[in-house]
């Protein structure tokens, strides 16, 4: 897929060529959003699939995301993980983008991290050494003790869910609100990179799907949070430090 750069004279009406229109009609654009900051994010506590509320900063971040996306091309639909922190962020976005509902997709929820859930990151290695080691292991098929998922399992369900959305909305733009672990899985699945780096709360990440291929258009954009702020440490499943 080629990129088209356009400089438009404001005094003239721009019209898509047949070729440009065909390219656009084949591409699904998915705007991936990480939920706003939560009380547990701020405290350094491991959420996994447990619930925690957006804190005051997270609520402001949700407003900032919504205002930004509300100024961009209108999405045809808004999807969300079924965990409350994602749903609350998605509902704010949907309202501003004039979408009548948020569709919950359970497969977009955060990774189940077994016996690490509910612990503070600083205590993980001491209190649950096997689970902690499994979480940071490079062995992607290793399940986390305590009922947790392997990274391969997370990647499979995340990418399957994303692909179903992409195929349903061919040629359209949709918004998906999810979690740091899911975004990490998506990034590494698409790029085959060994690391996804930090995934910041309320970041905007854009991917395109066409002809069974994924392309990352932009990643980890937090420019809309300049007046709100965000946790610098973000989600980082690649490093223990």
TrEMBL record:
Residues making up the signal peptide according to the UniProt record: none
Record InterPro entries: His_Pase_superF_clade-1 (IPR013078), His_PPase_superfam (IPR029033), PG/BPGM_mutase_AS (IPR001345), PGM_Phosphatase (IPR050275)
Active-site positions on this chain: 35, 110
Positions with a binding annotation for substrate: 34-41, 85
Family membership: Belongs to the phosphoglycerate mutase family.
Superkingdom as given in the UniProt entry: Eukaryota
Protein name: Phosphoglycerate mutase
Membrane-spanning parts: none
PANTHER family with a match to the protein in the record: (RAPE) HYPOTHETICAL PROTEIN (PTHR48100:SF20), BROAD-SPECIFICITY PHOSPHATASE YOR283W-RELATED (PTHR48100)
Record lineage: Eukaryota, Viridiplantae, Streptophyta, Embryophyta, Tracheophyta
Coiled coil: none
Organism, as annotated: Eruca vesicaria subsp. sativa (Garden rocket)
Any single Pfam family the record assigns to this protein: His_Phos_1
């Amino acid at each position: 897929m080629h990129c088209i750069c356009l400089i438009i004279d404001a005094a003239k009406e721009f019209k898509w060529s047949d070729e440009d229109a065909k390219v656009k009609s084949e591409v699904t654009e998915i705007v991936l959003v990480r939920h706003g900051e939560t009380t547990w994010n701020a405290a350094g506590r491991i959420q996994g699939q447990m619930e925690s509320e957006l804190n005051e900063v997270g609520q402001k971040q949700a407003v900032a995301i919504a205002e930004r996306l509300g100024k961009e091309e209108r999405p045809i639909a808004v999807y969300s993980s079924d965990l409350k922190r994602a749903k609350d962020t998605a509902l704010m976005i949907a309202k501003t983008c004039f979408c009548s509902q948020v569709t919950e997709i359970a497969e977009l929820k955060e990774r189940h991290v077994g016996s690490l859930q509910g612990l503070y990151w600083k205590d993980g290695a001491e209190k649950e050494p096997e689970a902690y080691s499994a979480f940071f292991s490079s062995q992607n098929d290793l399940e986390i003790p305590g009922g947790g998922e392997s990274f391969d399992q997370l990647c499979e369900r995340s990418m399957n869910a994303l692909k179903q959305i992409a195929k349903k909305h061919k040629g359209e733009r949709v918004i998906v609100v999810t979690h740091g672990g899911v975004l990490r899985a998506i990034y590494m699945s698409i790029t085959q990179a060994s690391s996804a780096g930090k995934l910041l709360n309320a970041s905007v990440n854009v991917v395109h799907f066409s002809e069974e291929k994924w392309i990352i258009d932009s990643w980890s954009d937090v420019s809309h949070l300049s007046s709100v702020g965000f946790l610098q440490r973000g989600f980082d499943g690649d490093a223990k430090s």
